[in-house]
Prior knowledge:
With 285 residues, this protein is α/β, with parallel strands linked by helices. The chain is built from nine helices and 13 strands. Helices cover 30% and strands 31% of the residues.
Amino acid sequence: MQLTFTEMHAPTVGLAIQVDRQLYTEQSDFQRIDVFECEEFGRFLTLDGYMMLTERDEFIYHEMMVHVPLAVLGETVRKVLVIGGGDGGCVRELCRYPHIEHIDLVEIDERVVAVCREYLPTVACSLDDPRVHILYQDGLKYIRRIEDEYDLIIIDSTDPFGPGEGLFTMEFYGNCYKALRAHGVLVNQHESPFYKGDALACQRAHRNIVHSFELSRLFQAHIPTYPSGHWLFGFSSRGVHPVRDLKADDWNARGIETRYYNTNLHKGAFYLPNYVQRLLEKVEE
Length: 285
Ligand code: SAM
């Protein structure tokens, strides 16, 4: 019998992956957690039936979430907050920078961390770095009491429903603004512009962010296992610009080996298709 994982990306369109083995399944206090194994993508994690990451293409997402802000902020990044991200992928990329002194990982579901440690060790491999402090809390509540604390905040959340819903609100982004230091940057996973449901979620998030930050730009990457493959990320700050303030020579001098990110692609990622620009302009005024 052939087992197939299917995730619908639109009412009549979906992703189907022939599965060799289901390695794990659990209903945690927050969501259904599954780990599968397949020929094309290796092992992959789903939450409530939605694709979170695969061994084969997770490098694209995690490199873009981390190296884009680090190539702009450089050595000024000492203290980082990651909200969500219990798989450890963003933390792994952050730990490649010796100058980063402290990483708080605020993940609501400790079962996600435990499952990724066991079944996705290449992703969760840096969670025991002494600079990493895991707090099992709701990021929406955690951020309310933080002020002028972080140089970089990364929102690596699930989609805007279930436990992740609050991480796309004006209240949350306003509190992230307050929690950042003056030169700080917020990077968030910003959904996709293609299918109707994702495009609406993208517009709502953008509207809430532009009302909270002086500068907000979106950048893009191509992630095969995410809806449409065209994925967006947000870069927001009080004034730091993601392309004008890119320190390409400094970043390249670090000699960090990547498989997707480079400082030329960094610039290109911020030049969006016309239909995406129009989608965003609708909610910017
Ligand atoms: N890369 C994935 C994506 O783009 O969909 C996200 C991966 S990561 C597994 C998402 C994490 O966000 C999950 O572990 C989930 O438990 C966590 N999460 C969801 N809502 C949260 C909240 N309010 N506070 C903290 N963590 C949350």
